[in-house]
Amino acid sequence: MSPQETLKKYYGYDNFRPLQEDIIKSVLQKKDTLALLPTGGGKSICFQIPALMNDGICLVISPLIALIKDQVENLKKKGIGALAIYAGMSFADVRQTLQNAAFGNYKFLYVSPERLQTKLFLEYLPALNPSLIVVDEAHCISQWGYDFRPSYLRIATIREELPNVPIIALTASATANVQNDICKNLLFKKDSNSFQQSFVRPNLSYSAFKPVAKENKLLEVLQNVNGSAIVYCKSRKQTLKISEMLIANKINADFYHAGLSAEMRTKKQDDWINNKLRTIVCTNAFGMGIDKPDVRVVVHFDVPDCVENYYQEAGRAGRDGKRAYAVLLYSTKETNDILYKLETKYPTSEKLKSLYIAVMNYLQVPAGIGEGQSFDFDIATFAQNFKFNILQATYGIQALAQEGLLSFTEMVFKQSTVVFCVNKNDLQEFQTVHKTLSETIKGLLRSYEGIFDYTCTIYENQLAKFIKLPKEDLLKNLLQLHQYKIIDYKPASEKPQILLLKNRMYNDDFVIDNNAMAARKEEATKRAIAIEKFVQATKECRSKFIGNYFGDKNIPDCGICDNCINNLDARLPEDEFKKCAKKIVEFIKIEKLNTQAILKKMKPLRQRSVWLVISFLLAEEIIFTNKNNEFEITDKK
Q: Rounded to whole angstroms, what are the CA distances from 411 to 50, 68, 241, 305?
């Protein structure tokens, strides 16, 4: 099938979004490809279409477990074979997944970057024979990026093993330096291609406010802007507090953060997507991979860490092309604290060594071993036991991760496991005495081959159906068998995890690359200064500021952000305003036009005047922007 036929068959779309087809053609030509597409720009289609058109399996490397699970489930719903390997899976499950990928009828294998250098993965790599390597969130490979992960640097080793397999690297936000770093660290070939979608969002109005009371301003925004809303907060505690405040003021809201169970997160997310819930108050754990085009407003209750994060999160508003708003609330203290917090985020080597020793002692890992082992890790308990400030502990562990010593995942879902702890003769005697538990024991032995000798992942729902027992009764039986020490039963859980990427160093051997740490701190300082300037800007167009930050120098003033509107000194008399509006509508009726085309046609009128009229037409929903950032007439008008 052609790319268009594949798109129609599996995704139901007739046409590609801007740049998607060009990116797909580049991948099909087996060229290394860098694609910068904004949030909601349809990145997954850019690699899934060529993977479906080629023989062999597509290897997708992604750091986001929640996103991996979502994409695998979505592919399965389309009838496409997909597998995933991530932190928290048992050795047996990983091995079985790799066997299925190598010898089964599957098109996609998603892996977290930490898995790439494990002996088991490298053992199966030749049999996998990938047709395409996908690096999602590719900015993580750059030390100068805002989310550097040393595990991404290992992708180059895989590249050396598979020199003829093309790579597509995808990200929503990367500065020019980071783009160069991506291509360099992934060993891109000379004939590689780069694609970057414009950062212009003509229907999205950015604004920043320094209110006396943020809660009052938030209420004002949500009461004045109808439709679906996201409110981002820095802390989990605050998401609950703000959602309760909104509910008290008769705004349909709920809270969301990574500390909730998977079931609860899914329920809240689905209610919001299906408009049963108007406002979701959340941490930045919310939003990845969610495709909801009709979000009308995104409010940042706190200042984000960098422009990259802000652009991604604010960009979840207005993907349907209709007018939407990105509102940022800040205080003088917050902007002053941005640079101050860098001292905590980038601790001295002495402080980092102290934290490292404490973490290893907490996990009870002896020196010289530990590589590849993973542990449940409650950071709050750790900080309390070892007398660390919670922020010091959090940022310190992030710094250890950036040094490539460990990987910290905030929430990992671990399946239930069982292994028998007695020999067969003792088991038979036990069954004779405890006949009520006999069916559960038989069900385990019949359902899971090798469970008597090896730890196996079990699925309680399936087991309950197999032995025709209510799930509640099965769970009681399993716990009872565990108490009798007949089995070692570990129920499914969701807990933060630490994966050790290297053996524990001896205390005297602990060395940190101080130059690399200083360089990362310098880049973080630049990012902090940039977000501070964005927040405090009163003259510069905010859309233009964001575009320039990412190296897009051709963005005109948007005309609809708070600064553009406040700075307009070219307001037209009412009759001229109406004439201008009528003329623009007539132009758009004849053909779809982008911003630049309208500005050109409306000369010699000043750009700011034309922008004001366009802003009015968008607000009144007389016109809207399509997926190609062109203006069209709204049907109802």
A: 32, 13, 22, 21
With pLDDT > 90 as the criterion, what percentage of the chain qualifies? 50
Cα separation, 45 vs 71, whole angstroms: 11
Dist CA 50 CA 30 (whole Å): 10
Task: Please spell the DSSP secondary structure of 231-279, one letter per residue.
Answer: EE-SSHHHHHHHHHHHHHTT--EEEE-TTS-HHHHHHHHHHHHTTSSSE
The predicted-structure confidence for 390-441, as pLDDT tens digits, reads as follows 888 988 998 898 888 988 876 555 678 899 999 989 999 999 999 999 999 9
For residue 367 the two structure tokens come to 């020196």
Residue 620 sits in which domain range? 568-633
Contact 285, 257 (CB under 8 A): yes
Tell which of 196, 221, 253 closes a domain. Answer: 196
pLDDT at 571: 63
Q: Which CATH number does the domain housing residue 485 bear? A: 1.10.10
We report the CATH number of the domain holding residue 127 as 3.40.50.300
Contact 525, 441 (CB under 8 A): no
225 shares its domain with 84: no
Looking at the fold, whether 239 and 188 belong to one and the same domain comes out as no
More confident residue, 409 or 599: 599
Sign of CA dihedral 448, 451, 456, 461: positive
- Joined tokens for residue 164: 């003829």
Vertex 291: Cα angle to 150 and 412 (nearest 5):
40
pLDDT in tens, 147-199: 888 888 888 888 888 889 999 999 988 888 899 999 999 999 999 999 988 88
- Omega before residue 604 within 30° of 0, cis: yes
Residues 109 and 166 occupy one common structural domain: yes
Same domain, 59 and 187: yes
Residue (of 270, 288, 282, 303) closest to 229 by Cα position:
282
pLDDT at 48 > cutoff 70: yes
Number of domains in the chain: 5
Q: Are 251 and 278 in contact (CB under 8 A)?
A: yes
Same-domain status, 247 and 125:
no
Task: Read off the pTM.
Answer: 0.74
Helix (H, G, I), strand (E, B) or coil at 581: helix
